Amino acid sequence: MLWVLFIVASAIAVLFVAWGFRRPGKRDTDLGDELRLNRDLYLDKKAELAQLLASGDLSHSQHDALLLEHQRQLLEDNDVAEVHGASGGRERWLLVALMVAVPMMAGGFYWLLGAADELQIKALTDQRRELLSSEQLDRQRLAELDARLIRQLQILSDRYTDKPVYPLLLARLYQESGNHGMAANYYRTVSRLLPEDGALQAEYAQSLFFANGNRMTDQIRALAEAAQVLSPGDHTALGLLGIAAFQEERFAEAIGYWQQALQTLGPLSPSRTALAAGIDAARERLGKDGRTDPGVAGPSLSVNVSLAQGFEAPPETAVFVYARAWQGAPMPLAIARLKLVDLPTRVTLDETMAMSPAMTIASVDQVELVARVSFSGTARPESGDFQGSLGPITVADDPGELSLIIDNRLP
């Protein structure tokens, strides 16, 4: 039955395309415009997700799941555009005939042309997004979904070798699961298909760095430098260049790279904590060597944050550490985001971590330091969160290193 369906469908498709060839048109131009529009819409969605992540309205896992879904949707939209690009708008009688014939053959078409794989990927990504957004993450179920999703993506990646979206999704899934070697292999494929995409080149370099046991090589440095040329200000490339400079004992350069990276990140980005720790380490090495510390202009506060005994939560739970005006507006003047598994740790809050240029630590005389375990994953306090606070602290007094214990449950 399927082979009969395929013959009939193929005959209709050939007639449809042949009829379009009888007239000149703007099919290539229209198709190119539609593909560019699809990409622009995807980039807008990607930027919106980055803003939601930076503001704390999305957790890191929720951001990754939604980005994965938008990437899948971009692929689906482009496939539709390519099909539409092969047809014209004048063959109305043929379109009417197809409106009758195509629904009858839709099921067979999906299986014959591979759309069943696309539908299965959509179903798996939907299930994955729901699982990641649930309060209790079932890691075994997540591993099972990822294994099925990887199998389907590998089928499509092998079938459509000219489409970067499949190896890109595979690379990010493997990276997230900690299989950095496989991630690097797929990032290599993507980098060849999209050689002018600086952000992807930086991701490829990062995957190689992880796969190499967090050790820098000439290849990784060269990739990071190329990515920075293609995409100036990419925080991943800047972070890697800072690591290369630090390992070569060029500490002032490392601080410069990492401070640039901080400027590109939202105040709630989880990457801020690692960058700030790297800057602190580079400053310490500069001090020991007697060299000049470029530093950050304005005041800063260092605080040791820990969780009191008896307070327990999943290790991936978000933790926010911030300074706010003493008896003033609740808006953070400087804020850092980390995970419960990072505690105890030292956090340095400075002017680069402000949510608004007009509201920074330097804009007030006294501050209150707050550390909160947020079960919702957002910066807004909610009932049941764990919190600790310390204040007032006079900014001009240079209080040195402070200690803050999270020892209170919000009512």
Give a written overview of the molecule.
Helices cover 58% and strands 13% of the residues. It has two domains: 259 residues, Tetratricopeptide repeat domain (Serine Threonine Protein Phosphatase 5, Tetratricopeptide repeat, Alpha Horseshoe), CATH 1.25.40.10; 109 residues. It has 411 residues and is α+β, with helices and mostly antiparallel strands. The N terminus is likely disordered. It is globular, with a radius of gyration of 26 Å. It contains 13 helices and eight strands. Helix 2 packs antiparallel against helix 3, helix 8 runs antiparallel to helix 9 and helix 11 runs antiparallel to helix 12. The strands form two sheets. It has a five-stranded antiparallel beta sheet with strand order 3-2-5-6-8. It has a three-stranded mixed beta sheet with strand order 4-1-7.
Distinct helical segment count: 13
| First-residue to last-residue Cα separation | 65 Å
User: How many E strands?
Assistant: 8
- The CATH superfamily of the largest domain appears as Tetratricopeptide repeat domain
- CATH architecture field of the largest domain: Alpha Horseshoe
Radius of gyration: 26 Å
Strand fraction:
5-15%
Strand order of the largest sheet: 3-2-5-6-8
Structural class: alpha+beta
Summarize the helix and strand pattern as letters. Answer: HHHHHHHHHHHHHEEEEEEEE
Any idea of the CATH topology of the largest domain? Serine Threonine Protein Phosphatase 5, Tetratricopeptide repeat
